[in-house]
Amino acid sequence: MSDDEKYLRRAIELAGEARASGNPPFGSLLVGPDGRILAEDRNTTITDRDISAHPEQKLARWAARELDPETAAGTTMYTSCQPCGMCTGALARSGLGRVVFALSGEQLESLKEPTAPVVAKPVPQEGPFLFEEARVPVEGYYR
Question: Rounded distance, CA 14 to CA 16, Å?
Fold first, then answer.
């Protein structure tokens, strides 16, 4: 068994723990460059009443806060399911090295009943507006 498989199996165990506690069945762990598990978490969106309490999101925030950039770049996140758009954005900003997932988003959708409620629907967005005013606090920040 490869290390990737070993860590993915742990992520799947965490997903089972999440489901057993009344939450959606998703789990993740973060493995350091030396192969040591640095942190692990499970989905707690229901029990925490927090729509952002996905394990990937929580671990990405933890890594950004607790790890130096070099260590973060050497880490691998193992997760039971492919990260959603929200988590993908957090991962991109966290500086983590890579993500390995067990179940793709497409595979997840195939496991849902056709009558299952839609978890996330797009919210209409409008803009851009007021460029001259909105650019004032931003201009020069990213230099």
Answer: 5
